[in-house]
Structures are given as structure tokens and as C-alpha cells.
What does this fold into?
Amino acid sequence: MPEFRKEPVTGRWVIVSTDRAKRPRDFIRTQVVVQKKGICPFCPGNENRTPPEILAFRAHGGPNQPGWTTRVIPNKFPALRVEGDFDREPDGLYDRMNGIGAHEVIIDCPEHIASLGETTDTNTANVFWAFRERLADLKNDVRLKYTLLFKNHGEPAGASIEHSHSQLIALPIIPMAVQEELDGSRRYFDLHDRCVFCDIIRQERRDGKRVVHEDEDVIVLAPYASRFPFELWILPRRHASHLEFAPAEIYRGLASTLGRLLRKIDRALECPAYNFVLHNGTMKETDSPSYHWHLEIIPRLTRVAGFEWGSGFYINPTTPEEAASFLRDTIA
Ligand SMILES: [Zn+2]
Ligand SMILES: [Zn+2]
Ligand SMILES: [Zn+2]
It folds into this structure.
């Protein structure tokens, strides 16, 4: 059974997931599990190689058969488990909790492609619809407080299977990085009676220097204090705290913007590994005036080293203004 352990000085939680048991020799650099020639468990026809699906959008066929366009399955090697009791207990001065939560894989599309930028906008929109459905469904589990949706693309970004997929981890606690954003935006709101992200959008649109793209639905920015070269945020233009309550039209717009952006990144930076993370409102709230959902994209171009570990802040060798201008000029 995995467990949460709390570091007593800063209050940071760690998941100790012994089910993914690793012996020292397992840490020797592993190759991406599925090579082009191998059998891919995420390709249609291989549904029996994964745990039974939780959700699938399909044109034809029955559950766990080919015919799907986007498919959600439990992670075969979960960091957390849905079953079990949620008991929180002290261990001397330490705190521990059972590793309750959900860990799911969203197989983005049936085609064996590595990047979401290579599939159709319709398919990418389906991925966001799958996010929406899973977010809504996981809310029924009252033990859970936050669902983090993310993608690891490429081995340096943590992907172990090549076929394009996203993941979600639903947690019984709100992660510290998310809590910091929630608290910061709440403080700004208390002071100004406005959403800080809406204000950022207003100022960036006026200024234009860090805007990569904007349309009716979304805006893409290289944030003012980007931690990494080519860090990008996609935000909805109209205030909304939760992706799952967004109007239907936005999914299509979001999908085509993300697809175009990923193709630009591939062209400009020669297909780097990247992560994206959805920063969303918490599961208990339905609508927050102070928080504004967004997707953060981080191409993995630099390595986190001693200074970053020691200080918690980042040295970014590329200005966001340069990154934005470079991507504006790149043809998707
Ligand atoms: Zn595949
Ligand atoms: Zn807002
Ligand atoms: Zn964020």
C-alpha cells in the first residue's frame, strides 16, 4: 500500500509508493518501454494488455475493444490506490496517511503517434472532454481534494510509453504548488476585488510582447517571470476557475490552439520533450472568483541542478519576450 508522509518542517507531502518497487539496479537509465517495433499496449487491438477501461469515446465496438478514439484506463503501476481506508495517523512527530487516490492514463488517440501535435483537433478536443468527464466523476469521491492532470512527453519528461497519453492523479490533499497559487490569487482578490489572472491577461494584451497567440477563447503567454525557456501558459480569455465547467465551444478552441502550439514548439525547438500540467480549481469548489484555470507547458530544455534544488528558484537563460517573439514567427 502506498503512503503519504509529511515532512514536518515545511509541511511538504511525499508519496512513498512501494508498489512500484524499485531495487537499486532498476534506477539504471531505463529505455522508453515501447520501441517502434515492440507491441504497444496503448494501440487498438491490444486492449487486453491494459486494465479494463474506465471511459472511452468510440465510433463502434464494445468496451475494451477497438473502435475508440480516446480511452481512459487505470494506471497499471499506480502511485496511489483507490481501494482501502483513509486513515491519517501520527508517527511520533511525523504524519502519515494511506496512499488513497486515483491514478489514471488517458490514451489520447488510437494512432501510434508520440505527440499530441500530430493528431487532429477533433481528437485533441476529445482528450479535453475526457479530462472534463473524469474531473466531474472523481468529485463523487469525497475523500479526494484535488485532481492533477498532466502529460509527460518524451523520456526526459518522464514518459515510459511512446504512444501519446496523458495522466491524472487525484489526491486527498491539495499539492503545495497548487495551494501557493490558490492562496496568492485569493490574497490579490481580497486586495483588489479582481482576479489576478484576468488582470495579467488584460496587461499582456495591452503590452503584446509576451503574447504568442490569442483568439476569442484562449490566450497563450510566455509568463513574465518564466522559470524555464519557452515556458507557456494557455488561459481562457473569460474568467473561469474550473475546466470542467467551461462552455463546450472552448474545448475545440483549446484543442486547435494546443495542437498549433505543440507543432510550433516541435519546429522551433526540434521536437523537445515537454510536460504540461492543468492548474484547475479545487474539487470542493465549483466556482471561484479569485482562481482562473490554465494549462502550463514546460519544454524540457534545461536541467534542474544544485542551485534550483537549493533555492527553489530558477535561472532562465531565455527571456519570455524572446521566446514569445520566436514562436509568433514560427509557422505551425
Ligand atoms: Zn501505440
Ligand atoms: Zn480570472
Ligand atoms: Zn499555474
